[in-house]
Write a structure and sequence with these properties.
The chain is mainly β. Helix content is 5%, strand content 41%. The chain has 2 helices and 28 strands. The strands form 8 sheets. A 4-stranded antiparallel β-sheet has the order 1-28-25-24, with no helix packed on it. Strands 2-3-4-5 form a 4-stranded antiparallel β-sheet, with no helix packed on it. It is globular and about 50 Å long. The chain starts with a helix and ends in a 9-residue tail after the last strand.
């Protein structure tokens, strides 16, 4: 992605001037004059016990967040951990059995975790594994039916998993596939009208999954979509740069939801890692900027969320790999002591 940085900068600046936005205020991570007008509070939680990293997989079941693999600046990793939201501590689990990797995807289904795809430093990967949480054991479930890839997205309904987009080593992708855990089978879905992309972001609210951001051919993607888990149909929403108050341009960010609101946070905005946080209201299809993430700027972070609580952790800022962890309270005033 680094080798396309200058093309992305040019694209962003051109679009910013076209819609009359003063972009300087958006790329600043610590000197925004409007900071005190934005609501939201980030509270320190238990620092990750393992090696700092970016590009880890993550999924949540109840009050437990699971994460593993990733890249620490030197090596791709296989260790797996769980974060207890109530107890505020981390515990190490059985190692991921596949090739050490970064940029893998994960989802939770029927009380199990599913992890696959990613990048081992040389090749994109297509293998897939299930994790039995009760027994702390892993099992291979064969390969993904699409092309091996990294930087894809994944989500789940109550019965199926879904995987799509990403980069397969030659091209950015826009295909989507449904996973059936009954027989570990895959079926391609049709109907997504959006652009190809890698390193996009999702969040779920009820039976709907919202997807946007990412990059393709060196250009940030600004289309925004919702997937109905009941009908398995995609619908286009207001673009992320269609409102003069919104300019949500990024990739390698995180998404999460709390209650009936969704959030995009951190990521790469083309000028480097970011701390900005945006809140989405599905009732109005509009965004509002919240208090920035209170840690260092970052991309490649992870998020745990269960509908009522959300945590953002890890990632990297340049060559600095991170192990901090914070919980977000969207309706509180920022507490300078936290």
């Amino acid at each position: 992605m680094i080798d396309k940085l200058y093309d992305r900068k040019t694209s962003i600046l051109t679009k910013a001037f076209a819609i009359g936005i003063l972009f300087i205020g958006m790329v600043s991570c610590s000197n925004d004059d409007d900071d005190d007008e934005n609501i939201g509070n980030w509270v320190d939680r238990s620092i990750f016990d393992g090696t700092p990293r970016s590009g880890a997989f993550a999924f949540t079941l109840g009050n437990f967040g699971y994460m593993g693999t990733g890249f620490d600046g030197d090596d791709r990793l296989s260790d797996v951990w769980v974060f207890d939201m109530e107890g505020n501590f981390w515990a190490q689990l059985a190692d991921f059995p596949g090739t050490p990797r970064s940029s893998a995807i994960a989802f939770a289904l029927n009380g199990n975790g599913y992890v696959g795809l990613g990048y081992d430093g040389d090749d994109e990967l297509g293998d897939f594994y299930s994790y039995n949480i009760a027994n702390n054991t892993w099992a291979s479930i064969g390969d993904f039916a699409g092309t091996p890839r990294r930087g894809a997205i994944a989500f789940n309904s109550t019965t199926n998993g879904y995987v799509g987009t990403g980069f397969d080593g030659d091209n950015d992708k826009k295909d989507f596939w449904r996973f059936n855990p009954a027989d570990n089978s895959w079926e391609e879905l049709v109907g997504f009208g959006g652009n190809k992309r890698r390193e996009a972001t999702t969040f779920s609210i009820g039976n709907r999954v919202y997807m946007g951001t990412g990059v393709s051919n060196g250009q940030f993607q600004t289309d925004f979509w919702v997937f109905d888990l009941d009908t398995e149909q995609w619908s286009a929403l207001l673009d992320l740069d269609d409102d003069e108050d919104n300019f949500i341009i990024r990739n390698n960010a995180v998404g999460f939801s709390i209650g009936d609101r969704g959030y995009f946070a951190t990521g790469d905005n083309g000028f480097g890692a970011s701390t900005s946080v945006w809140e989405y209201n599905p009732a109005t299809d509009l965004w509002e900027e919240k208090t920035e993430y209170e840690g260092i700027t970052r991309q490649g972070a992870i998020a745990f969320y269960n509908g009522t609580r959300a945590f953002l952790a890890l990632g990297r800022s340049g060559n600095l790999y991170l192990d901090d962890n914070r919980e977000f309270f969207p309706n509180e005033e920022e507490d300078e002591d936290d």
